[in-house]
Amino acid sequence: MSEENIFERDLDQTVANHQTQTPLSFLAWAASVYPDKAAVIHGDKSYTYAEFDTRCRRLASALKGRGIGLGDTVAVMAPNSPPMLEAHYGVPMIGAVLNALNFRLDGKSIAFILEHGEASVLITDRELSPTIKQALDEIEHEIIVIDIDDPLVNSGELLGEKDYESFLDEGNSDFRWETPNDEWQAISLNYTSGTTGNSKGVVYHHRGAYLNALGQIVVMGLNRESVYLWTLPMFHCNGWCFTWAVTAIGGTHVCLRSVDPGQIFPIIRDHGVTHMCGAPIVLNMLVHAPDDVKTAFPQTVEVATGGAAPPSAVIEGMERLGFNVTHLYGLTESYGPSTFCAWQTPWDSLDADRQAAEMARQGVRYPTLSEQTVMDPETMTEVPADGESMGELMLRGNTVMKGYLKNPEATEAVFSGGWFHTGDLGVLHPDGYVEIKDRSKDIIISGGENISSLEIEDVLYKHPEVMEAAVVAKPHEKWGETPCAFVTLKPDAGDVAEANIIGWCRDNMAHFKAPTEVVFGPLPKTSTGKIQKFVLREQVRGD
Ligand code: ADP
Fold this sequence. Notes:
The protein is of the alpha/beta class. Helices cover about 30% and strands about 25% of the residues.
Protein backbone atom coordinates (compact mmCIF):
# COMPACT_ATOMS: atom_id res chain seq x y z
CA MET A 1 0.00 0.00 0.00
CA SER A 2 1.32 3.45 -0.83
CA GLU A 3 2.04 5.82 2.02
CA GLU A 4 0.65 8.78 0.21
CA ASN A 5 -2.94 9.12 -0.92
CA ILE A 6 -2.36 10.06 -4.53
CA PHE A 7 -5.89 11.37 -4.82
CA GLU A 8 -5.06 14.16 -2.42
CA ARG A 9 -1.96 15.21 -4.35
CA ASP A 10 -2.44 18.33 -6.54
CA LEU A 11 -6.19 17.90 -6.48
CA ASP A 12 -7.37 20.96 -4.64
CA GLN A 13 -10.72 22.53 -4.12
CA THR A 14 -11.07 25.61 -6.30
CA VAL A 15 -14.04 27.75 -7.22
CA ALA A 16 -14.25 25.68 -10.39
CA ASN A 17 -14.98 22.46 -8.56
CA HIS A 18 -16.32 23.50 -5.19
CA GLN A 19 -19.19 25.91 -4.69
CA THR A 20 -21.45 26.74 -1.81
CA GLN A 21 -24.66 24.75 -1.89
CA THR A 22 -27.54 27.16 -1.63
CA PRO A 23 -31.18 26.92 -2.70
CA LEU A 24 -30.80 30.40 -4.22
CA SER A 25 -29.09 28.74 -7.17
CA PHE A 26 -32.35 26.90 -7.96
CA LEU A 27 -34.12 30.16 -8.79
CA ALA A 28 -31.35 31.32 -11.10
CA TRP A 29 -31.55 27.94 -12.82
CA ALA A 30 -35.34 27.93 -13.22
CA ALA A 31 -35.33 31.51 -14.50
CA SER A 32 -32.78 30.65 -17.17
CA VAL A 33 -34.36 27.32 -18.20
CA TYR A 34 -38.08 28.18 -17.95
CA PRO A 35 -38.23 31.99 -18.15
CA ASP A 36 -41.76 32.02 -19.59
CA LYS A 37 -43.28 29.24 -17.53
CA ALA A 38 -45.77 29.99 -14.73
CA ALA A 39 -43.74 30.02 -11.53
CA VAL A 40 -46.26 31.48 -9.11
CA ILE A 41 -50.05 31.66 -9.33
CA HIS A 42 -52.05 33.72 -6.87
CA GLY A 43 -55.76 34.19 -7.55
CA ASP A 44 -55.96 35.64 -11.09
CA LYS A 45 -52.35 36.76 -11.02
CA SER A 46 -49.51 34.67 -12.41
CA TYR A 47 -45.76 35.34 -12.54
CA THR A 48 -43.37 33.63 -14.93
CA TYR A 49 -40.01 32.38 -13.68
CA ALA A 50 -38.33 35.42 -15.26
CA GLU A 51 -40.71 37.72 -13.35
CA PHE A 52 -40.42 35.75 -10.11
CA ASP A 53 -36.63 35.96 -10.28
CA THR A 54 -36.70 39.68 -11.01
CA ARG A 55 -39.08 40.36 -8.14
CA CYS A 56 -36.80 38.48 -5.74
CA ARG A 57 -33.76 40.40 -6.93
CA ARG A 58 -35.62 43.70 -6.57
CA LEU A 59 -36.55 42.72 -3.03
CA ALA A 60 -32.92 41.89 -2.23
CA SER A 61 -31.73 45.15 -3.74
CA ALA A 62 -34.39 47.21 -1.92
CA LEU A 63 -33.43 45.62 1.41
CA LYS A 64 -29.77 46.27 0.72
CA GLY A 65 -30.60 49.88 -0.09
CA ARG A 66 -32.01 50.17 3.43
CA GLY A 67 -28.76 48.94 4.94
CA ILE A 68 -29.84 45.35 5.52
CA GLY A 69 -27.17 42.71 4.97
CA LEU A 70 -25.29 39.72 6.32
CA GLY A 71 -26.77 38.33 9.52
CA ASP A 72 -29.71 40.74 9.73
CA THR A 73 -33.16 39.29 10.36
CA VAL A 74 -36.09 40.05 8.07
CA ALA A 75 -39.42 38.87 9.47
CA VAL A 76 -42.44 38.21 7.27
CA MET A 77 -45.98 37.85 8.56
CA ALA A 78 -48.15 36.68 5.70
CA PRO A 79 -50.34 33.84 4.55
CA ASN A 80 -49.17 31.83 1.55
CA SER A 81 -48.80 34.55 -1.06
CA PRO A 82 -46.14 35.75 -3.54
CA PRO A 83 -44.33 38.11 -1.11
CA MET A 84 -43.82 35.28 1.40
CA LEU A 85 -42.40 33.06 -1.32
CA GLU A 86 -40.23 35.85 -2.72
CA ALA A 87 -38.79 36.49 0.73
CA HIS A 88 -37.40 32.93 0.70
CA TYR A 89 -35.03 34.12 -2.04
CA GLY A 90 -34.79 37.91 -1.78
CA VAL A 91 -33.83 37.93 1.90
CA PRO A 92 -30.97 35.37 1.79
CA MET A 93 -29.71 36.87 -1.51
CA ILE A 94 -28.09 39.59 0.61
CA GLY A 95 -26.96 37.27 3.41
CA ALA A 96 -29.92 38.20 5.61
CA VAL A 97 -32.00 35.63 7.48
CA LEU A 98 -35.70 35.04 6.86
CA ASN A 99 -37.92 34.74 9.90
CA ALA A 100 -41.29 33.57 8.55
CA LEU A 101 -43.79 34.22 11.30
CA ASN A 102 -46.67 32.01 12.25
CA PHE A 103 -49.68 34.16 11.41
CA ARG A 104 -51.90 32.29 13.86
CA LEU A 105 -49.92 33.54 16.86
CA ASP A 106 -51.13 36.37 19.09
CA GLY A 107 -49.49 39.79 19.32
CA LYS A 108 -47.54 38.98 22.47
CA SER A 109 -45.94 35.85 20.97
CA ILE A 110 -45.09 37.73 17.77
CA ALA A 111 -43.52 40.52 19.84
CA PHE A 112 -41.42 37.93 21.68
CA ILE A 113 -40.18 36.47 18.38
CA LEU A 114 -39.43 39.87 16.81
CA GLU A 115 -37.40 40.82 19.90
CA HIS A 116 -35.67 37.48 20.32
CA GLY A 117 -34.82 37.24 16.61
CA GLU A 118 -33.81 40.95 16.56
CA ALA A 119 -35.74 41.58 13.34
CA SER A 120 -34.64 44.73 11.49
CA VAL A 121 -37.47 44.62 8.95
CA LEU A 122 -41.02 43.33 9.17
CA ILE A 123 -42.98 42.71 5.97
CA THR A 124 -46.60 42.21 6.98
CA ASP A 125 -49.90 41.41 5.30
CA ARG A 126 -52.63 43.97 5.98
CA GLU A 127 -55.15 41.31 6.96
CA LEU A 128 -52.94 40.49 9.96
CA SER A 129 -52.63 44.11 11.09
CA PRO A 130 -54.63 43.70 14.34
CA THR A 131 -52.03 41.22 15.67
CA ILE A 132 -49.07 43.13 14.32
CA LYS A 133 -50.28 46.41 15.77
CA GLN A 134 -50.30 44.79 19.19
CA ALA A 135 -46.86 43.29 18.64
CA LEU A 136 -45.36 46.57 17.45
CA ASP A 137 -46.69 48.32 20.56
CA GLU A 138 -44.74 45.88 22.68
CA ILE A 139 -41.35 45.81 21.00
CA GLU A 140 -38.70 48.29 21.91
CA HIS A 141 -36.23 48.23 19.05
CA GLU A 142 -36.42 50.07 15.71
CA ILE A 143 -37.96 48.10 12.90
CA ILE A 144 -38.76 48.99 9.30
CA VAL A 145 -42.35 47.99 8.56
CA ILE A 146 -43.48 47.26 5.00
CA ASP A 147 -47.14 46.39 4.26
CA ILE A 148 -48.35 43.77 1.86
CA ASP A 149 -51.51 45.10 0.29
CA ASP A 150 -52.75 41.89 -1.34
CA PRO A 151 -55.49 42.60 -3.92
CA LEU A 152 -57.31 39.51 -2.63
CA VAL A 153 -57.78 41.22 0.75
CA ASN A 154 -59.76 44.25 1.70
CA SER A 155 -59.63 44.16 5.47
CA GLY A 156 -57.02 45.40 7.88
CA GLU A 157 -54.89 48.51 8.08
CA LEU A 158 -51.65 49.57 6.50
CA LEU A 159 -49.20 50.03 9.36
CA GLY A 160 -45.85 50.65 7.77
CA GLU A 161 -44.11 53.31 5.81
CA LYS A 162 -44.61 51.73 2.41
CA ASP A 163 -46.42 48.98 0.65
CA TYR A 164 -44.52 45.99 -0.65
CA GLU A 165 -44.92 46.76 -4.36
CA SER A 166 -43.55 50.31 -3.92
CA PHE A 167 -40.77 48.86 -1.80
CA LEU A 168 -39.82 46.55 -4.68
CA ASP A 169 -39.66 49.69 -6.86
CA GLU A 170 -36.79 50.87 -4.66
CA GLY A 171 -34.85 47.82 -5.83
CA ASN A 172 -32.90 47.26 -9.00
CA SER A 173 -34.05 44.51 -11.41
CA ASP A 174 -30.45 43.93 -12.46
CA PHE A 175 -29.30 43.34 -8.91
CA ARG A 176 -26.74 40.54 -8.88
CA TRP A 177 -26.60 38.57 -5.70
CA GLU A 178 -23.47 36.77 -4.65
CA THR A 179 -23.28 33.15 -3.65
CA PRO A 180 -22.60 33.03 0.09
CA ASN A 181 -19.00 32.20 0.94
CA ASP A 182 -20.06 29.62 3.41
CA GLU A 183 -22.94 27.19 3.12
CA TRP A 184 -23.07 27.06 6.92
CA GLN A 185 -24.37 30.63 6.77
CA ALA A 186 -27.85 31.05 8.29
CA ILE A 187 -30.71 31.22 5.79
CA SER A 188 -33.76 31.20 8.04
CA LEU A 189 -35.02 31.30 11.60
CA ASN A 190 -38.12 29.27 12.51
CA TYR A 191 -39.75 29.13 15.91
CA THR A 192 -41.13 25.75 17.01
CA SER A 193 -44.87 25.58 17.47
CA GLY A 194 -44.66 24.58 21.10
CA THR A 195 -46.70 21.39 21.51
CA THR A 196 -44.61 20.79 24.60
CA GLY A 197 -45.05 24.31 25.88
CA ASN A 198 -41.94 26.35 25.02
CA SER A 199 -40.96 27.86 21.68
CA LYS A 200 -37.32 27.97 20.49
CA GLY A 201 -35.69 29.74 17.55
CA VAL A 202 -34.35 27.12 15.16
CA VAL A 203 -31.64 28.30 12.76
CA TYR A 204 -31.27 26.74 9.29
CA HIS A 205 -28.23 26.98 7.01
CA HIS A 206 -27.99 27.19 3.20
CA ARG A 207 -26.56 23.69 2.86
CA GLY A 208 -29.39 22.05 4.79
CA ALA A 209 -32.06 23.98 2.92
CA TYR A 210 -30.48 23.00 -0.40
CA LEU A 211 -30.29 19.34 0.55
CA ASN A 212 -33.72 18.99 2.08
CA ALA A 213 -35.28 20.66 -0.96
CA LEU A 214 -33.59 18.06 -3.16
CA GLY A 215 -34.71 15.36 -0.72
CA GLN A 216 -38.31 16.48 -1.19
CA ILE A 217 -37.99 16.20 -4.95
CA VAL A 218 -36.75 12.64 -4.61
CA VAL A 219 -39.25 11.52 -1.98
CA MET A 220 -42.33 13.21 -3.41
CA GLY A 221 -41.42 12.68 -7.06
CA LEU A 222 -41.60 16.30 -8.21
CA ASN A 223 -40.84 17.03 -11.86
CA ARG A 224 -41.16 19.91 -14.32
CA GLU A 225 -44.86 19.17 -14.76
CA SER A 226 -45.50 19.46 -11.02
CA VAL A 227 -48.09 21.92 -9.81
CA TYR A 228 -47.79 22.41 -6.07
CA LEU A 229 -50.73 23.76 -4.09
CA TRP A 230 -49.75 25.67 -0.96
CA THR A 231 -52.06 24.12 1.65
CA LEU A 232 -49.14 23.90 4.08
CA PRO A 233 -48.17 27.25 5.59
CA MET A 234 -44.87 28.55 4.22
CA PHE A 235 -44.00 29.67 7.73
CA HIS A 236 -43.92 26.04 8.88
CA CYS A 237 -40.29 24.94 8.44
CA ASN A 238 -40.19 27.09 5.29
CA GLY A 239 -43.04 25.01 3.94
CA TRP A 240 -41.07 21.81 4.62
CA CYS A 241 -38.55 23.22 2.09
CA PHE A 242 -41.08 23.04 -0.78
CA THR A 243 -40.56 26.82 -1.13
CA TRP A 244 -37.18 25.89 -2.64
CA ALA A 245 -37.95 22.38 -3.95
CA VAL A 246 -40.72 23.36 -6.39
CA THR A 247 -38.47 26.06 -7.88
CA ALA A 248 -35.53 23.64 -8.15
CA ILE A 249 -37.54 21.53 -10.56
CA GLY A 250 -39.19 24.41 -12.41
CA GLY A 251 -42.65 23.43 -11.13
CA THR A 252 -45.50 25.83 -10.46
CA HIS A 253 -46.35 27.23 -7.01
CA VAL A 254 -50.08 27.83 -6.49
CA CYS A 255 -50.55 30.12 -3.48
CA LEU A 256 -53.50 29.77 -1.15
CA ARG A 257 -54.20 32.22 1.65
CA SER A 258 -56.36 29.95 3.77
CA VAL A 259 -57.09 26.25 4.00
CA ASP A 260 -60.62 26.28 2.68
CA PRO A 261 -61.94 23.06 1.10
CA GLY A 262 -64.36 25.21 -0.92
CA GLN A 263 -61.35 26.68 -2.76
CA ILE A 264 -59.02 23.68 -2.62
CA PHE A 265 -61.09 21.21 -4.63
CA PRO A 266 -61.80 23.57 -7.58
CA ILE A 267 -58.16 24.76 -7.63
CA ILE A 268 -56.97 21.15 -7.79
CA ARG A 269 -59.17 20.59 -10.82
CA ASP A 270 -58.63 23.93 -12.58
CA HIS A 271 -54.86 24.17 -12.18
CA GLY A 272 -54.14 20.45 -12.47
CA VAL A 273 -52.53 20.31 -9.04
CA THR A 274 -50.21 17.32 -8.67
CA HIS A 275 -48.79 17.78 -5.17
CA MET A 276 -49.73 19.27 -1.82
CA CYS A 277 -48.99 18.82 1.88
CA GLY A 278 -50.78 19.25 5.14
CA ALA A 279 -51.08 18.12 8.72
CA PRO A 280 -53.52 15.21 9.23
CA ILE A 281 -56.03 17.75 10.49
CA VAL A 282 -56.06 19.44 7.07
CA LEU A 283 -56.63 16.10 5.39
CA ASN A 284 -59.40 15.41 7.85
CA MET A 285 -61.03 18.70 6.86
CA LEU A 286 -61.01 17.65 3.20
CA VAL A 287 -62.39 14.20 4.00
CA HIS A 288 -65.23 15.72 6.02
CA ALA A 289 -66.01 18.57 3.64
CA PRO A 290 -69.65 18.64 2.50
CA ASP A 291 -70.24 16.56 -0.63
CA ASP A 292 -71.18 19.55 -2.80
CA VAL A 293 -67.76 21.08 -2.06
CA LYS A 294 -65.85 17.99 -3.15
CA THR A 295 -65.37 18.85 -6.84
CA ALA A 296 -64.05 15.80 -8.68
CA PHE A 297 -60.70 15.94 -10.48
CA PRO A 298 -59.23 13.51 -13.00
CA GLN A 299 -55.62 13.28 -11.71
CA THR A 300 -54.26 11.53 -8.63
CA VAL A 301 -52.85 14.15 -6.28
CA GLU A 302 -49.77 13.23 -4.26
CA VAL A 303 -50.31 14.49 -0.74
CA ALA A 304 -47.68 14.42 1.96
CA THR A 305 -48.84 14.48 5.52
CA GLY A 306 -46.94 14.75 8.78
CA GLY A 307 -46.54 16.78 11.91
CA ALA A 308 -48.66 14.17 13.67
CA ALA A 309 -49.41 10.55 12.86
CA PRO A 310 -52.23 10.36 10.32
CA PRO A 311 -55.02 8.11 11.59
CA SER A 312 -55.58 5.29 9.11
CA ALA A 313 -59.20 6.37 8.66
CA VAL A 314 -57.94 9.72 7.36
CA ILE A 315 -55.54 8.05 4.92
CA GLU A 316 -58.30 5.79 3.61
CA GLY A 317 -60.73 8.72 3.29
CA MET A 318 -58.18 10.71 1.27
CA GLU A 319 -57.39 7.82 -1.04
CA ARG A 320 -61.09 7.44 -1.79
CA LEU A 321 -61.16 11.11 -2.86
CA GLY A 322 -58.33 10.64 -5.38
CA PHE A 323 -55.25 11.42 -3.32
CA ASN A 324 -52.21 9.23 -2.81
CA VAL A 325 -50.94 9.79 0.73
CA THR A 326 -47.30 9.69 1.81
CA HIS A 327 -46.63 9.72 5.52
CA LEU A 328 -43.76 12.00 6.57
CA TYR A 329 -42.21 12.64 9.92
CA GLY A 330 -39.97 15.45 11.03
CA LEU A 331 -39.49 18.45 13.23
CA THR A 332 -38.71 22.10 12.92
CA GLU A 333 -35.14 21.15 13.87
CA SER A 334 -34.83 18.86 10.82
CA TYR A 335 -36.05 21.37 8.20
CA GLY A 336 -39.45 19.69 8.30
CA PRO A 337 -39.43 16.11 7.05
CA SER A 338 -36.44 13.90 7.84
CA THR A 339 -38.30 10.61 7.53
CA PHE A 340 -40.92 9.02 5.29
CA CYS A 341 -42.78 5.78 5.04
CA ALA A 342 -41.22 4.51 1.80
CA TRP A 343 -43.72 2.30 0.00
CA GLN A 344 -42.59 -1.26 -0.75
CA THR A 345 -44.05 -2.98 -3.82
CA PRO A 346 -45.00 -6.18 -1.95
CA TRP A 347 -47.37 -4.05 0.16
CA ASP A 348 -49.53 -3.66 -2.97
CA SER A 349 -50.95 -7.12 -2.38
CA LEU A 350 -51.71 -6.66 1.35
CA ASP A 351 -55.25 -6.12 2.53
CA ALA A 352 -56.31 -2.57 3.38
CA ASP A 353 -55.77 -3.00 7.13
CA ARG A 354 -52.25 -4.32 6.74
CA GLN A 355 -51.42 -1.58 4.26
CA ALA A 356 -52.70 1.02 6.71
CA ALA A 357 -50.60 -0.52 9.48
CA GLU A 358 -47.45 -0.33 7.33
CA MET A 359 -48.25 3.26 6.39
CA ALA A 360 -48.91 4.34 9.95
CA ARG A 361 -45.19 3.88 10.58
CA GLN A 362 -43.02 6.98 10.23
CA GLY A 363 -40.48 4.99 8.24
CA VAL A 364 -36.97 5.51 6.97
CA ARG A 365 -34.64 8.48 6.62
CA TYR A 366 -34.72 10.81 3.63
CA PRO A 367 -31.85 9.84 1.31
CA THR A 368 -30.43 13.31 2.06
CA LEU A 369 -30.18 12.64 5.82
CA SER A 370 -27.11 10.68 6.96
CA GLU A 371 -28.42 8.48 9.76
CA GLN A 372 -31.52 7.67 11.76
CA THR A 373 -32.02 5.22 14.58
CA VAL A 374 -33.76 4.55 17.87
CA MET A 375 -31.59 4.54 20.98
CA ASP A 376 -31.70 4.33 24.71
CA PRO A 377 -30.92 8.01 25.41
CA GLU A 378 -29.07 7.15 28.63
CA THR A 379 -26.61 4.63 27.20
CA MET A 380 -26.79 5.83 23.56
CA THR A 381 -27.07 2.25 22.36
CA GLU A 382 -29.43 1.21 19.61
CA VAL A 383 -32.54 -0.69 20.70
CA PRO A 384 -33.10 -4.17 19.18
CA ALA A 385 -35.01 -3.98 15.88
CA ASP A 386 -37.91 -6.04 17.23
CA GLY A 387 -40.79 -3.59 16.86
CA GLU A 388 -41.21 -3.58 20.65
CA SER A 389 -38.20 -2.15 22.46
CA MET A 390 -38.79 1.53 22.98
CA GLY A 391 -36.16 4.23 22.72
CA GLU A 392 -35.74 7.79 21.49
CA LEU A 393 -35.58 8.57 17.79
CA MET A 394 -32.18 10.07 16.94
CA LEU A 395 -31.09 11.78 13.72
CA ARG A 396 -27.80 13.04 12.31
CA GLY A 397 -26.83 14.67 9.06
CA ASN A 398 -26.70 17.84 7.04
CA THR A 399 -30.42 18.52 7.28
CA VAL A 400 -30.34 19.04 11.02
CA MET A 401 -30.47 22.68 12.19
CA LYS A 402 -27.42 24.80 13.08
CA GLY A 403 -28.86 25.08 16.57
CA TYR A 404 -31.20 27.17 18.71
CA LEU A 405 -30.72 30.93 18.50
CA LYS A 406 -29.13 32.41 21.62
CA ASN A 407 -29.66 29.21 23.58
CA PRO A 408 -26.35 27.27 23.75
CA GLU A 409 -27.51 25.07 26.66
CA ALA A 410 -30.53 23.79 24.75
CA THR A 411 -28.43 23.30 21.59
CA GLU A 412 -25.81 21.33 23.49
CA ALA A 413 -28.41 19.18 25.22
CA VAL A 414 -30.25 18.28 22.04
CA PHE A 415 -27.01 17.32 20.24
CA SER A 416 -25.48 15.36 23.13
CA GLY A 417 -23.62 12.20 22.20
CA GLY A 418 -23.29 13.30 18.58
CA TRP A 419 -26.94 12.79 17.66
CA PHE A 420 -29.94 15.06 17.45
CA HIS A 421 -32.39 13.91 20.13
CA THR A 422 -35.91 14.27 18.72
CA GLY A 423 -37.77 13.83 22.00
CA ASP A 424 -39.99 11.27 20.27
CA LEU A 425 -40.25 7.72 21.57
CA GLY A 426 -40.57 4.83 19.23
CA VAL A 427 -39.50 1.40 18.11
CA LEU A 428 -37.34 0.03 15.35
CA HIS A 429 -39.01 -2.65 13.24
CA PRO A 430 -37.05 -5.59 11.81
CA ASP A 431 -37.22 -3.96 8.34
CA GLY A 432 -35.52 -0.82 9.72
CA TYR A 433 -38.67 1.33 9.70
CA VAL A 434 -39.22 3.43 12.80
CA GLU A 435 -42.58 3.83 14.43
CA ILE A 436 -43.23 6.67 16.82
CA LYS A 437 -45.21 5.56 19.81
CA ASP A 438 -45.32 8.91 21.52
CA ARG A 439 -43.52 12.01 22.51
CA SER A 440 -41.50 11.40 25.68
CA LYS A 441 -44.13 13.28 27.61
CA ASP A 442 -47.18 11.63 26.03
CA ILE A 443 -46.69 8.00 26.94
CA ILE A 444 -49.16 6.57 29.46
CA ILE A 445 -47.83 4.15 32.07
CA SER A 446 -50.67 2.12 33.54
CA GLY A 447 -49.91 -0.59 36.09
CA GLY A 448 -46.32 -0.60 34.82
CA GLU A 449 -47.37 -1.17 31.20
CA ASN A 450 -46.55 1.41 28.52
CA ILE A 451 -49.63 2.45 26.59
CA SER A 452 -49.23 4.46 23.43
CA SER A 453 -51.71 7.31 23.26
CA LEU A 454 -51.34 7.22 19.46
CA GLU A 455 -52.57 3.64 19.32
CA ILE A 456 -55.73 4.47 21.25
CA GLU A 457 -56.29 7.56 19.11
CA ASP A 458 -56.04 5.46 15.98
CA VAL A 459 -58.82 3.21 17.26
CA LEU A 460 -60.93 6.22 18.24
CA TYR A 461 -60.58 7.77 14.78
CA LYS A 462 -62.08 4.60 13.32
CA HIS A 463 -65.27 5.03 15.35
CA PRO A 464 -67.94 6.07 12.83
CA GLU A 465 -69.09 9.08 14.86
CA VAL A 466 -65.66 10.43 15.89
CA MET A 467 -64.10 13.39 14.09
CA GLU A 468 -61.06 14.07 16.29
CA ALA A 469 -59.50 12.45 19.31
CA ALA A 470 -56.63 12.88 21.75
CA VAL A 471 -55.65 10.69 24.66
CA VAL A 472 -53.59 11.69 27.71
CA ALA A 473 -52.59 10.11 30.99
CA LYS A 474 -54.82 10.72 33.99
CA PRO A 475 -53.35 10.10 37.45
CA HIS A 476 -54.92 7.04 39.06
CA GLU A 477 -54.55 5.75 42.62
CA LYS A 478 -54.32 2.08 41.75
CA TRP A 479 -52.74 2.03 38.27
CA GLY A 480 -50.54 5.12 38.50
CA GLU A 481 -52.06 6.44 35.27
CA THR A 482 -54.96 5.52 33.01
CA PRO A 483 -55.86 6.79 29.54
CA CYS A 484 -58.37 9.63 29.37
CA ALA A 485 -59.83 10.31 25.92
CA PHE A 486 -60.92 13.69 24.58
CA VAL A 487 -63.24 13.33 21.62
CA THR A 488 -64.89 15.66 19.14
CA LEU A 489 -67.83 14.06 17.38
CA LYS A 490 -68.67 14.59 13.71
CA PRO A 491 -71.05 17.51 13.10
CA ASP A 492 -73.89 15.17 12.12
CA ALA A 493 -73.27 12.63 14.92
CA GLY A 494 -76.19 11.68 17.11
CA ASP A 495 -75.97 11.09 20.84
CA VAL A 496 -72.93 9.00 21.69
CA ALA A 497 -72.43 7.85 25.26
CA GLU A 498 -69.11 7.52 27.06
CA ALA A 499 -69.77 3.79 27.47
CA ASN A 500 -70.16 3.43 23.72
CA ILE A 501 -66.70 4.93 23.09
CA ILE A 502 -65.05 2.88 25.82
CA GLY A 503 -66.78 -0.26 24.53
CA TRP A 504 -65.52 0.47 21.00
CA CYS A 505 -61.96 0.69 22.31
CA ARG A 506 -62.29 -2.50 24.35
CA ASP A 507 -63.59 -4.30 21.25
CA ASN A 508 -60.71 -3.11 19.12
CA MET A 509 -57.66 -3.32 21.37
CA ALA A 510 -56.29 -4.91 24.55
CA HIS A 511 -58.70 -4.10 27.41
CA PHE A 512 -56.06 -2.55 29.66
CA LYS A 513 -55.37 0.04 26.97
CA ALA A 514 -58.96 1.27 26.69
CA PRO A 515 -59.67 4.74 28.10
CA THR A 516 -61.40 4.82 31.45
CA GLU A 517 -62.92 8.21 30.84
CA VAL A 518 -64.15 10.14 27.80
CA VAL A 519 -64.56 13.90 27.62
CA PHE A 520 -66.59 15.26 24.68
CA GLY A 521 -65.97 18.68 23.11
CA PRO A 522 -63.57 20.71 20.95
CA LEU A 523 -59.82 20.11 21.34
CA PRO A 524 -57.26 22.81 22.13
CA LYS A 525 -54.85 23.32 19.20
CA THR A 526 -51.51 24.99 18.60
CA SER A 527 -51.27 27.67 15.98
CA THR A 528 -50.17 25.00 13.48
CA GLY A 529 -53.29 22.97 14.15
CA LYS A 530 -51.72 20.37 16.41
CA ILE A 531 -53.59 19.21 19.44
CA GLN A 532 -52.10 20.63 22.63
CA LYS A 533 -51.87 17.62 24.82
CA PHE A 534 -50.21 19.54 27.61
CA VAL A 535 -53.41 21.58 27.99
CA LEU A 536 -55.47 18.38 28.22
CA ARG A 537 -53.01 16.95 30.73
CA GLU A 538 -53.37 20.04 32.88
CA GLN A 539 -57.13 19.67 32.60
CA VAL A 540 -57.16 16.06 33.82
CA ARG A 541 -54.78 16.87 36.65
CA GLY A 542 -57.07 19.73 37.62
CA ASP A 543 -54.18 22.30 37.40
P1 ADP B 1 -43.37 21.36 18.09
O1 ADP B 1 -42.11 20.59 18.46
O2 ADP B 1 -43.43 22.64 18.77
O3 ADP B 1 -44.61 20.56 18.12
P2 ADP B 1 -42.76 20.83 15.36
O4 ADP B 1 -43.54 21.30 14.22
O5 ADP B 1 -41.29 20.88 15.24
O6 ADP B 1 -43.21 21.70 16.56
O7 ADP B 1 -43.25 19.37 15.71
C1 ADP B 1 -42.43 18.24 15.63
C2 ADP B 1 -43.08 17.11 16.35
O8 ADP B 1 -44.28 16.71 15.71
C3 ADP B 1 -42.24 15.85 16.40
O9 ADP B 1 -41.28 15.92 17.44
C4 ADP B 1 -43.30 14.78 16.66
O10 ADP B 1 -43.63 14.70 18.03
C5 ADP B 1 -44.50 15.31 15.91
N1 ADP B 1 -44.59 14.64 14.59
C6 ADP B 1 -44.19 15.08 13.41
N2 ADP B 1 -44.48 14.20 12.42
C7 ADP B 1 -45.08 13.15 13.00
C8 ADP B 1 -45.60 11.91 12.52
N3 ADP B 1 -45.59 11.59 11.25
N4 ADP B 1 -46.11 11.07 13.44
C9 ADP B 1 -46.14 11.38 14.75
N5 ADP B 1 -45.69 12.53 15.26
C10 ADP B 1 -45.15 13.42 14.40
